[in-house]
Amino acid sequence: MFKKELRNKYKTLRQQLTQEEIEDKSLAIANRILQLDIWEKTYFHLFLTIEELKEVETEFILQILAGKDKEIVVAKSNFETLEMTNYLLTDNTKFQKNDYNIYEPVDGIEVPNTKIDVVFIPLLAYDKLGNRVGYGKGFYDAFLSKCREDVIKIGLSFFEPEEVIEDVSPTDIRLDYCVTPTTNYSFL
């Protein structure tokens, strides 16, 4: 399937999920993340859930990271440059919703991309090779291209992989893992 078709398919599948299903599946994903070999790392980039889009709820992952005393990094998006600025999450971090209903830090301690060890990535679909389909703006591909080569890229999905995404671009950056409620997929 092509990216446009996959975006439509998975947006529809997500809309059919109840709030209870989203919470149960998100908790299962958070528990499966505990099985990954990532816990010696320090800086974890975590996206904040867009509830209206029925994304994986990352609050459970946030609690795990905080409980393990990890440095949690959250992003602020610039929709003109399609770039993200990363901030360290602290007790003093203030958030506001942007025009796209995304909670973002107002400001704070900026964290360079090269400092980040692990990135949890939102997605709509992915395939058995680790290619992913996001919302189509390219924020994460641009961001990941500026991270260290050894940064660990983990997609989060309620669904199983597609066989193949047919229109992968040379600038698309593949996942290392994708975690679902039932399986940890490795693409290494």
From TrEMBL:
Coiled coil: none annotated. Its EC number is 6.3.3.2. The keyword Transmembrane does not apply. Its cofactor is Mg(2+). This is 5-formyltetrahydrofolate cyclo-ligase. The keyword Ligase applies. It catalyses: (6S)-5-formyl-5,6,7,8-tetrahydrofolate + ATP = (6R)-5,10-methenyltetrahydrofolate + ADP + phosphate. One of its GO terms (molecular function) is 5-formyltetrahydrofolate cyclo-ligase activity. It holds the Pfam family 5-FTHF_cyc-lig. Keywords: ATP-binding, Ligase, Magnesium, Metal-binding, Nucleotide-binding. Belongs to the 5-formyltetrahydrofolate cyclo-ligase family. InterPro entries: FTHF_cligase (IPR002698), FTHF_cligase-like_sf (IPR024185), NagB/RpiA_transferase-like (IPR037171).
